[in-house]
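cron nightly-structures :: item 1 of 1
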Amino acid sequence: MSLKSISQTRWKLEPQSVSIYPYGLSYILGVILAVGFGVIMFLYVKYQNTTISESLPLVLGLVLTVILFWGFAGTAIVFDNRTGSMRKLLMGFIPVNTIPFAKLQGISPVSNLYGSYKYRLFRKDNKFGKGILVSCAYTKNDDPNAVAFIDEAVTTIHGYLNAYDTPADYVAAPITDYKYFAEQGGKYILKKNKVGSTILGLALFAIGIHELTPVAWLGHDLAIGRICMLIFAIVGGPAIVLAGFTNITLDTLGRTLERKSPIGLGNKIYSFDDYNGVQTVRKSMNFIYTGTEVRLYFLKPDGEKQDVIVLQSFYKTSNVERFIQEVQSILKSSIRR
């Protein structure tokens, strides 16, 4: 059994239930910790002139940590069609979350900025939130484990959930007042906070220029951190200002999406006919959530690779859902014309 197979998503199909085990990577982390702790204990006992019995509290703490990692690897997401509910069982037996099928939207892939993606389970009242993790990370769309997971586990689970759907779940209220777009004669222009972008961008640029003067706060050495900060401030500052004045327009008459910057950098025009879907990308830094990007994909009839444009980024997931509803409403109004 390879390390990859241990870390992959596992699932168990039963007549009226599906159990998913997405945390296999914790098995490997547990082994790594066990080896690392073993080396630490050996060095501690040898060079501190102590014995295992004298170091028993430390030994128990290290052993407990490894056991917890191995136990976490057994955490299961159980979809029970007999009770019509999903249960998350920590370590495979401790219930920590129960959600009725009627409140679940389904399982969808969620990409990140590094190119990998995971499958998460979402509620109907929070379709673009964090969701509940139900798979390991994948880097290829045709990963055999991912394909089998969709074909066997996800398809069965969605069959369970569909039986609890009602027509009202998918009836969206018509949008008559747009929060994120300004309408001008059939053209919808994405609203931007130009004042905020200008202030932030100029402030960053000013800090970068200041750091090049004799009174720089960070000194004058060539440390990597200082160089990165200078690049971020001097280049990123004007980029933020430019982004604030870059217009994105959805033209329902010409059936196009146009991105136009003041200096002509990165100008693009896409036809609504080439629209190939919307996707959200959750961003994080050091495992801390920093926002969700909304991206539109376009694929020309003779093209092999999709073009992607980032429309907006939000921190609140409720704003993401409203924004996507507005974009889809605009696209549908163009079709009706």
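cron nightly-structures :: done
The longest helix spans residues 25-47.
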